[in-house]
Design goal:
Helix content: under 10%
Distance between the termini: 21 Å
Largest sheet: 7 strands, mixed
Order of helices and strands: EEEEEEEEEEEEEEEEEEEEEE
Strand order of the largest sheet: 1-20-17-22-15-13-14
Structural class: mainly beta
Oligomer: single chain
């Protein structure tokens, strides 16, 4: 079963002149009781940050926070002692666990575009931790699903998180196809960055979503050269 959500149905927030953000789930001042999460995927924000601006230090706890940089560069600093830059094609994961704080700034002279995802962890009370990896996903392998971050230990050479979920990226050329095998006990979330794809026969364009339940196979075909994110998630809270 596929639930299609158009780009126009995202919540747009512009709380400051330097930030334009689209919330795919309830976040900050946006509250929709019917759109709180999809499995353990609690937050998906599509953020655009103007040059020489950003988020001052703020706290988090009991959440797995994944940042994917699509364009530009993030300057990150946190209370764990990490001071890093996350560039285009890099993946960052923070386990907020029992509590930490961080800041995120665009110190460059060009805009920053990123996705930030929050996952409900499979275990509470974890010590805060940090991981970052240059996967080069925005311009890397084509016509396949590239794993970026996972809690499923069968996958190697990816960023690890404390969630029974996997985040994939695909650069899919026109007329190419991908099949993703899943199970009725799993959920599949797809969000298109650019291009046009058909997901089990339903067309998705830029910034459209598909939320899928009770499927065995997800079939994806590109009508145009496309980039999209696919997230494999558990459906039962006991399996987060």
């Amino acid at each position: 079963m596929l639930k299609y959500i158009s780009s126009a149905d995202r919540h747009h927030a512009a709380p400051a002149s330097w930030l334009s953000s689209y919330f795919l789930f309830s976040f900050a001042d946006y509250l929709d009781r019917d759109n709180m999460h999809f499995g353990p995927l609690r937050v998906f924000n599509d953020d655009n940050v103007a040059p020489q601006s950003g988020f001052p230090q703020h706290p988090h706890s009991e959440m797995e926070i994944v940042t994917l940089v699509l364009e530009g560069e993030v300057t990150h600093e946190d209370t764990m002692g990490n001071k890093t830059s996350i560039k285009e094609g890099e993946v960052q994961r923070m386990t907020a666990g029992t509590g930490m704080a961080h800041s995120e700034f665009n110190r460059q002279d060009k805009p920053l575009h990123l996705y930030q995802l929050w996952f409900i962890p499979g275990q509470k009370g974890l010590a805060p931790s940090y991981e970052q990896k240059d996967i080069g996903f925005t311009s890397g392998n084509r016509n396949e699903l590239v794993p970026l971050v996972t809690g499923q230990k069968v996958l190697e050479d990816v960023v690890y998180m404390n969630s029974n979920s996997t985040v994939y990226w695909s650069n899919l050329n026109e007329d190419n196809e991908i099949e993703f095998k899943t199970f009725p006990i799993r959920l599949t979330f797809i969000y298109v960055k650019e291009g046009s794809i058909f997901v089990n026969g339903t067309e998705l364009g830029p910034n459209d979503q598909a939320r899928m339940t009770n499927d065995d196979v997800v079939h994806i075909r590109a009508a145009k050269d496309s980039q999209f994110i696919l997230i494999d998630l558990p459906s039962a809270e006991s399996n987060y």
